Structure formats: structure tokens, C-alpha cells
Amino acid sequence: MKKANWARSHLSRYARVLSRATCERRQSPLSTGKWREMKSEKEQMTASKDKGVLKIKLRDNSGDQDNIPKQKEDKKEVFTKVVIRRLPPHLTKEQLEEHLSPLPSFDYFEFFSADPSLYPHLFSRAYINFKNQDDILLFRDRFDGYVFIDNKGQEFPAVVEFAPFQKVSKKKLKKKDAKAGSIEEDPEYKRFLENYSCDEEKSMANPETLLGEIEAKTKELIAKRTTPLLEKNKTKK
């Protein structure tokens, strides 16, 4: 009896679940033909959205192509500055110019002697900026590996390569001084000349007249010299 009751209760529960599921299925739009309608509407909406996006993109692209500025072509850096290294430490600029002459046209030449603090690696170097780039190859073929000999007979094979820093320092022109060469017209200088000429005339005078002038000046100074006691005596008198 118990088993029969248990089976009946389970069957009734299962029937309730099935009936509830069928009711929900009937009420839901997926169980009817509405699902197809919804699917078609969804496809139409996505298609219309895609078309709209494509139109916007085409418009944006067409507008961007007109507004995009033309990119400037990257200027290629031209290397014209050369350094010649491993020169003898006691070599001077004048001696180097003699060795390198005749030099092609250049607008910058700077020579640096050896730094004693870098002993034993003591080498001079020079920087040259050529106006024509084709002259660099000729200069390299001529002086790369060129052996310089110092006063002691030691050999120094030179090395020619592009300078790591290609810019050239521009020498600033000094402004001309407006007062240069105008000292003769300066009033203070004229006064000085007058006083100096008077002193020369006095020095050229006789010693007796000079002594008389000195005595007269000393008397004037003594007469002008006063003290509080002398002033008091003057007031009493």
C-alpha cells in the first residue's frame, strides 16, 4: 500500500510539472510562429544597422580623404662632417693643414690637441665639415690609414670617419663698438690732456719758481688750518 501511495504521489507531481511546462510553452512566443517573425525582424534590423554603419563609414572616409594633410617627405640627413682621429699628440694645427693640403672646399675646421689626463692614450683629432659630399670619399681614400710621423719617429696611422655630432657651431659676429676710435673727441680725455700739458709746463719751469709756488701753497694751508682752541681764542678777541 505504501509503495502504491508513493508512486501515485510522484506521478501526480510529474503530471503537474508537465502541465505547467506546456502552459508556459503555449504562453511563450518561441512556441508559436512568432519566433519566425521575430527572427525575420531581427535580421532586418541588423541588416539596416549594418547598412547604416557602412554609409557612415563611407562618408567619414570620403571626408577624411579630403581633410588629411599631405605628409611631408622625411628629409634625409646628409652627413658632411668628418673627424680624423689618432693623430700625433704633439702635432699642431698648422702642421696638420700642411699635411692635408690641398683640402676641398669646407666651412668648418677645428683642431683639438691631445689631453694629457688621458695618458697613455694621447691622440690629437680634427673636425672638418665639407661643402660637397662627394669630397668626403676622396678625403677618406686619401687619409684613412695615412701614417703620421712625430718628432720621435713614432708612427700614427690616422682614422677617418663621420663625426657622431653633425651640427656645426656658428661663430657669432661681434658687434662693433660705437665708441671705438672716438677717444680724441671725448671731453674727459681732452681735460686730461689739458691738465697733463699744464703739469708738463710746470715741470719744465725753473726750480726757484717751483719752490716759490710750493711755499705759497704751504702758507695757504697753514692759514686755513684751524683747531677748536684757535677758534675759541678768535671769538674771545
UniProtKB/TrEMBL annotation:
Entry keyword ATP-binding: no
Gene Ontology cellular component terms for the protein in this record: cytoplasm; nucleolus; protein-containing complex
Occurrences of domain UPF3 (ranges): 80-236
Identification of the protein by name: UPF3A regulator of nonsense mediated mRNA decay
InterPro entries in the record: Nucleotide-bd_a/b_plait_sf, RBD_domain_sf, Upf3, UPF3_dom
A biological process from GO: nuclear-transcribed mRNA catabolic process, nonsense-mediated decay
SUPFAM superfamilies assigned to the protein according to its UniProt record, in alphabetical order: RNA-binding domain, RBD
One protein family per Pfam: Smg4_UPF3
Organism of derivation: Hippocampus comes
Compartments where found: Cytoplasm; Nucleus
Family statement: Belongs to the RENT3 family.
Domain of life, per lineage: Eukaryota
Compositionally biased region (Basic and acidic residues): 34-54
GO MF assignments: RNA binding; telomeric DNA binding
Stretch list, region Disordered: 25-54
Keywords: Cytoplasm, Nonsense-mediated mRNA decay, Nucleus, RNA-binding
